[in-house]
Amino acid sequence: MNVKFNNRDPVYVQVIQHFKEQIATGIYEPGQEIPSRRELANQLKINPNTAQRAYKEMEEQGLIFTEGNLPSRITSDEKVFQRVREELILEAVGAFVDSIRTINVPLNEVLQLVEQNYHKKGDSL
Predict the structure, then answer these.
(1) pLDDT of 108-118, one tens digit each?
(2) 2, 71, 79, 86: least CB-packed within 10 angstroms?
(3) By the 8 A CB rule, do 65 and 80 touch?
């Protein structure tokens, strides 16, 4: 697991964001076992308390669940997957809109360029 941490956001928030991205892209599948808190802390070279806080928050958000002494797993709730996907899309769109507004490009021109670029990027996949 490779996460590049920034200095702006708390580490536990960045860990949660990483899990959300992995869930949204299908790298983590429903019901998949994830590393223990201690394993995650070792892999990411973060404080175990930070890993614990991230897992606690992810459990509260319904991203993961832990039953008894069993390993934590990614949720199987399709509504949670959809919510995570929408959240990530809205964050990306919001950042894009904020940046494009500063150069006063007409909306129809922006939409046309986005569509052209989206299709071009898709062709190379």
Answers:
(1) 999 999 999 98
(2) 2
(3) no
Using one digit for the tens of pLDDT, what is the confidence trace for 65-113? 999 989 999 999 999 999 999 999 999 999 999 999 999 889 999 999 9
> For 44, how many CA atoms within 13 A lie in the half-sphere containing its CB?
26
Domains contained in the chain, CATH given? 11-76 (1.10.10.10), 80-123 (no CATH)
**Residue bearing tokens 């990614």:** 74
Q: How many CB atoms lie within 10 A of CB 115?
A: 10
